[in-house]
């Protein structure tokens, strides 16, 4: 009975082995059958790759740069320069100050030139040129008028100042100087140094603001006029075409 049981186990083992052999044969034949049926297979191989990481901090800190290396200075760049508003204001103020100083220098130069011209006029024409008929009082008036050349003064103020130098106090409109105390109107057309010249209806041609004008004759065909062009005292001609009245004070 035992032997029969062993036989049955052996037969089962043999059956299992046979079945495994058949299965293995079928598996080994499958790729060939598939290949025979036109199936394409491919393979791809990738090379091995290894990454090497560097210590960037160590490299940066170990960089050696020569002290005389040139990397391009800012001064070498051609960059347009611009100004701030404060710089523009300061420059404008500086220009204004320079212009004011220039004008002041020009005004001073002009004043000095006028003073030199006045001195030249005094030296070229003085009381000694007026003749023996001029009195000492007339000479005092002439000297006062000369001293005022270049001053800002109208015609009546000039003649009033000249009269005051000889002790006469009088002031009025130009045509009113015909009434100067102690004076009289000259009718023979002659002129003497110290005479008061009165003009009417000059239409401002004398340079003054009033239509009438008054001046002081100093001799040599010249008179000193106040309120001349520019409103200053000046030495000029007698304006014979506008002269209407001559007042003389003995």
TrEMBL record:
Biased composition (Basic and acidic residues): 86-105
Name of the protein: NLP/P60 protein
Gene Ontology molecular function: any one: cysteine-type peptidase activity
UniProt similarity note: Belongs to the peptidase C40 family.
Signal peptide: 1-35
Record lineage: Bacteria, Bacillati, Actinomycetota, Actinomycetes, Bifidobacteriales
Any single GO BP term: proteolysis
NlpC/P60 domain ranges (all copies): 109-250
InterPro entries per record: NLP_P60_dom (IPR000064), Papain-like_cys_pep_sf (IPR038765), Peptidase_C40 (IPR051202)
Source domain of life: Bacteria
Region described as Disordered: 64-130
Keywords in alphabetical order: Hydrolase, Protease, Signal, Thiol protease
SUPFAM superfamilies: Cysteine proteinases
Compositional bias annotation for Low complexity: 106-116
PANTHER family: MUREIN DD-ENDOPEPTIDASE MEPH-RELATED
């Amino acid at each position: 009975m035992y032997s029969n049981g062993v036989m049955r186990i052996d037969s089962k083992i043999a059956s299992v082995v046979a079945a495994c052999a058949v299965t293995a044969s079928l598996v080994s034949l499958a790729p060939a059958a598939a290949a025979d049926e036109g199936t394409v297979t491919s393979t791809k191989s990738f090379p091995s790759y290894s990454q090497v990481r560097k210590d960037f901090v160590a490299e940066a800190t170990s960089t050696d740069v020569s002290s005389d290396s040139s990397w391009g200075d800012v001064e070498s760049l051609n960059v347009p320069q611009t100004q701030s508003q404060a710089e523009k204001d300061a420059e404008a103020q500086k220009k204004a100050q320079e212009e004011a100083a220039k004008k002041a220098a020009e005004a001073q130069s002009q004043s000095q030139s006028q003073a030199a011209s006045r001195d030249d006029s005094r030296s070229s024409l003085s009381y000694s040129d007026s003749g023996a008929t001029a009195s000492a009082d007339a000479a005092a008036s002439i000297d006062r008028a000369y001293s005022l050349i270049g001053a800002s003064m109208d015609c009546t103020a000039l003649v009033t100042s000249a009269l005051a130098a000889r002790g006469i106090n009088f002031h009025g409109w130009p045509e009113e100087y015909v009434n100067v105390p102690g004076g009289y109107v000259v009718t023979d057309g002659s002129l003497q140094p110290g005479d008061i010249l009165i003009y009417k209806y000059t239409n401002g041609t004398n340079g003054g603001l009033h239509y009438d004008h008054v001046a002081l004759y100093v001799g040599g065909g010249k008179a000193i006029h106040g309120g001349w062009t520019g409103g200053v005292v000046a030495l000029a001609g007698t304006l014979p075409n506008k002269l209407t009245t001559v007042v003389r004070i003995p």
